[in-house]
Amino acid sequence: MVGQRQFDEKHALDRVREVFWLKGYGATSMQDLAAASGVQRGSLYNAYHDKETLFLRAFEGYADQFLAEAAEVLADQTVDQALSGFFDVTIASMTSGIPTRGCLTTKTAIDTRAEGERIRAALGDLLDNLERLLRERLSTEEARPRLTIPPAEAARVLVTMTRGIVVMERVYQDPERLRATAASLITALLAPAA
Protein backbone atom coordinates (compact mmCIF):
# COMPACT_ATOMS: atom_id res chain seq x y z
CA MET A 1 0.00 0.00 0.00
CA VAL A 2 1.12 3.54 -0.70
CA GLY A 3 2.56 5.26 2.37
CA GLN A 4 3.31 2.00 4.21
CA ARG A 5 6.78 0.58 4.44
CA GLN A 6 7.13 -2.74 2.69
CA PHE A 7 9.90 -3.92 4.99
CA ASP A 8 10.43 -4.70 8.67
CA GLU A 9 11.62 -1.30 9.87
CA LYS A 10 13.04 -2.48 13.22
CA HIS A 11 15.08 -5.21 11.54
CA ALA A 12 16.31 -2.81 8.85
CA LEU A 13 17.30 -0.15 11.39
CA ASP A 14 19.12 -2.73 13.54
CA ARG A 15 21.14 -3.88 10.51
CA VAL A 16 21.80 -0.31 9.39
CA ARG A 17 23.01 0.63 12.89
CA GLU A 18 25.51 -2.22 12.83
CA VAL A 19 26.99 -0.97 9.54
CA PHE A 20 27.32 2.60 10.83
CA TRP A 21 28.82 1.23 14.04
CA LEU A 22 31.44 -0.88 12.29
CA LYS A 23 32.34 1.37 9.34
CA GLY A 24 31.54 4.83 10.66
CA TYR A 25 29.13 7.36 9.20
CA GLY A 26 31.39 8.82 6.55
CA ALA A 27 32.66 5.48 5.21
CA THR A 28 29.16 4.02 4.92
CA SER A 29 27.35 4.30 1.60
CA MET A 30 23.65 3.93 0.89
CA GLN A 31 24.58 0.79 -1.06
CA ASP A 32 26.21 -0.63 2.10
CA LEU A 33 23.02 0.11 4.02
CA ALA A 34 20.79 -1.42 1.37
CA ALA A 35 22.89 -4.58 1.26
CA ALA A 36 22.95 -4.93 5.05
CA SER A 37 19.26 -4.24 5.55
CA GLY A 38 18.03 -6.23 2.57
CA VAL A 39 16.04 -3.17 1.48
CA GLN A 40 16.53 -1.63 -1.96
CA ARG A 41 18.32 1.71 -2.04
CA GLY A 42 15.28 3.37 -3.62
CA SER A 43 13.06 2.12 -0.83
CA LEU A 44 15.48 3.45 1.78
CA TYR A 45 15.49 6.85 0.06
CA ASN A 46 11.70 6.84 -0.13
CA ALA A 47 11.40 5.98 3.54
CA TYR A 48 14.18 8.18 4.98
CA HIS A 49 15.15 10.65 2.19
CA ASP A 50 18.88 10.62 2.90
CA LYS A 51 21.70 8.90 4.77
CA GLU A 52 21.66 11.42 7.61
CA THR A 53 17.98 10.79 8.40
CA LEU A 54 18.52 7.04 8.22
CA PHE A 55 21.47 7.34 10.61
CA LEU A 56 19.42 9.44 13.02
CA ARG A 57 16.61 6.86 13.10
CA ALA A 58 19.11 4.06 13.72
CA PHE A 59 20.95 6.12 16.34
CA GLU A 60 17.68 6.85 18.16
CA GLY A 61 17.23 3.14 18.88
CA TYR A 62 20.84 2.85 20.05
CA ALA A 63 20.50 5.86 22.36
CA ASP A 64 17.23 4.62 23.85
CA GLN A 65 18.69 1.18 24.56
CA PHE A 66 21.95 2.51 26.01
CA LEU A 67 20.16 4.99 28.29
CA ALA A 68 17.74 2.28 29.48
CA GLU A 69 20.64 -0.04 30.33
CA ALA A 70 22.48 2.76 32.14
CA ALA A 71 19.36 3.71 34.11
CA GLU A 72 18.84 0.09 35.12
CA VAL A 73 22.35 -0.39 36.54
CA LEU A 74 22.30 2.98 38.30
CA ALA A 75 19.12 2.08 40.22
CA ASP A 76 18.71 0.04 43.40
CA GLN A 77 22.38 -0.51 44.23
CA THR A 78 24.96 1.16 46.40
CA VAL A 79 26.62 4.07 44.63
CA ASP A 80 29.86 2.06 44.28
CA GLN A 81 28.00 -0.82 42.64
CA ALA A 82 25.96 1.55 40.49
CA LEU A 83 29.03 3.29 39.07
CA SER A 84 30.87 0.00 38.53
CA GLY A 85 27.79 -1.36 36.77
CA PHE A 86 27.58 1.78 34.65
CA PHE A 87 31.15 1.29 33.43
CA ASP A 88 30.52 -2.45 32.90
CA VAL A 89 27.62 -1.59 30.57
CA THR A 90 29.71 1.02 28.76
CA ILE A 91 32.71 -1.28 28.33
CA ALA A 92 30.56 -4.25 27.27
CA SER A 93 28.89 -2.10 24.61
CA MET A 94 32.16 -0.96 23.04
CA THR A 95 33.93 -4.33 23.24
CA SER A 96 31.12 -6.37 21.67
CA GLY A 97 31.50 -7.91 18.27
CA ILE A 98 34.40 -9.30 16.29
CA PRO A 99 36.17 -7.07 15.60
CA THR A 100 35.13 -4.98 18.59
CA ARG A 101 32.88 -2.19 17.42
CA GLY A 102 33.87 0.68 19.70
CA CYS A 103 31.37 3.39 20.58
CA LEU A 104 28.89 4.59 17.98
CA THR A 105 28.57 8.00 19.64
CA THR A 106 32.28 8.72 19.86
CA LYS A 107 33.03 7.22 16.46
CA THR A 108 30.41 9.52 14.94
CA ALA A 109 31.54 12.57 16.95
CA ILE A 110 35.06 12.40 15.52
CA ASP A 111 33.98 11.57 11.96
CA THR A 112 34.60 14.69 9.89
CA ARG A 113 31.88 13.60 7.45
CA ALA A 114 29.26 13.48 10.23
CA GLU A 115 29.22 17.16 11.08
CA GLY A 116 25.57 17.89 10.38
CA GLU A 117 23.66 19.96 12.93
CA ARG A 118 21.07 17.21 13.48
CA ILE A 119 23.74 14.58 14.08
CA ARG A 120 25.59 16.81 16.54
CA ALA A 121 22.31 17.47 18.35
CA ALA A 122 21.51 13.74 18.59
CA LEU A 123 24.95 12.98 20.00
CA GLY A 124 24.65 15.86 22.47
CA ASP A 125 21.20 14.68 23.57
CA LEU A 126 22.52 11.22 24.38
CA LEU A 127 25.47 12.59 26.36
CA ASP A 128 23.28 15.15 28.15
CA ASN A 129 20.77 12.45 29.11
CA LEU A 130 23.56 10.20 30.32
CA GLU A 131 24.94 13.04 32.41
CA ARG A 132 21.46 13.71 33.82
CA LEU A 133 21.04 10.04 34.85
CA LEU A 134 24.39 10.10 36.63
CA ARG A 135 23.71 13.48 38.29
CA GLU A 136 20.37 12.21 39.62
CA ARG A 137 21.98 9.04 41.00
CA LEU A 138 24.83 10.99 42.58
CA SER A 139 22.41 13.48 44.14
CA THR A 140 20.78 10.82 46.34
CA GLU A 141 21.09 10.90 50.13
CA GLU A 142 23.26 7.79 50.00
CA ALA A 143 25.68 9.10 47.35
CA ARG A 144 26.03 12.83 47.97
CA PRO A 145 27.92 12.65 51.31
CA ARG A 146 30.56 10.38 49.76
CA LEU A 147 31.29 12.52 46.71
CA THR A 148 34.58 14.40 46.61
CA ILE A 149 33.11 16.94 44.16
CA PRO A 150 29.50 18.12 43.58
CA PRO A 151 27.11 15.71 41.79
CA ALA A 152 26.90 17.77 38.59
CA GLU A 153 30.69 17.94 38.28
CA ALA A 154 31.07 14.23 39.07
CA ALA A 155 28.47 13.33 36.44
CA ARG A 156 30.29 15.40 33.81
CA VAL A 157 33.65 13.81 34.71
CA LEU A 158 32.12 10.33 34.46
CA VAL A 159 30.61 10.98 31.03
CA THR A 160 33.87 12.50 29.82
CA MET A 161 35.73 9.42 31.07
CA THR A 162 33.44 7.16 29.04
CA ARG A 163 34.62 8.99 25.91
CA GLY A 164 38.25 8.58 26.93
CA ILE A 165 38.01 4.86 27.59
CA VAL A 166 36.60 4.42 24.09
CA VAL A 167 39.89 5.72 22.69
CA MET A 168 41.89 3.50 25.06
CA GLU A 169 39.84 0.48 23.95
CA ARG A 170 40.68 1.20 20.31
CA VAL A 171 44.40 1.34 21.12
CA TYR A 172 44.81 -1.45 23.70
CA GLN A 173 41.72 -3.64 23.21
CA ASP A 174 41.97 -4.70 26.85
CA PRO A 175 38.65 -4.59 28.77
CA GLU A 176 40.41 -5.30 32.08
CA ARG A 177 42.56 -2.21 31.63
CA LEU A 178 39.40 -0.17 31.02
CA ARG A 179 37.72 -1.58 34.14
CA ALA A 180 40.79 -0.83 36.25
CA THR A 181 40.84 2.77 34.99
CA ALA A 182 37.13 3.15 35.73
CA ALA A 183 37.65 1.71 39.23
CA SER A 184 40.39 4.29 39.86
CA LEU A 185 38.06 7.11 38.87
CA ILE A 186 35.29 5.78 41.12
CA THR A 187 37.75 5.60 44.01
CA ALA A 188 38.81 9.21 43.36
CA LEU A 189 35.18 10.43 43.24
CA LEU A 190 33.88 8.55 46.30
CA ALA A 191 35.19 8.79 49.83
CA PRO A 192 35.18 5.43 51.64
CA ALA A 193 31.83 4.39 53.08
CA ALA A 194 31.45 5.19 56.77
Structure overview:
- By secondary structure, this protein is mainly alpha-helical.
- It has a domain at 58-189: Tetracycline Repressor, domain 2 (Orthogonal Bundle).
- The protein is 71% helix and 0% strand.
- The protein is built from nine helices and no strands.
- Helix 1 packs across helix 2, helix 5 (79-95) runs parallel beside helix 8 (151-172) and helix 8 (151-172) runs antiparallel to helix 9 (175-189).
- The model has no long low-confidence stretch (mean pLDDT 93).
Secondary structure layout plus pairing:
Elements (H helix, E strand, L loop, with lengths): L8 H15 L6 H8 L3 H8 L2 H24 L4 H17 L8 H6 L7 H22 L12 H22 L2 H15 L5
Q: Uncertain spans, ≥5 residues at pLDDT below 50?
A: none
User: Percent of residues in beta strands?
Assistant: under 5%
What's the mean pLDDT score? 93
Number of helices: 9
Share of residues in helices: over 70%
CATH topology of the domain at 58-189: Tetracycline Repressor, domain 2
Helix/strand structural class: mainly alpha
The termini sit apart by 65 Å
Summary, kept brief:
The chain is an all-alpha fold and 194 residues long. The protein contains nine helices and no strands. It has a domain of 132 residues: Orthogonal Bundle (Tetracycline Repressor, domain 2), CATH 1.10.357.10.
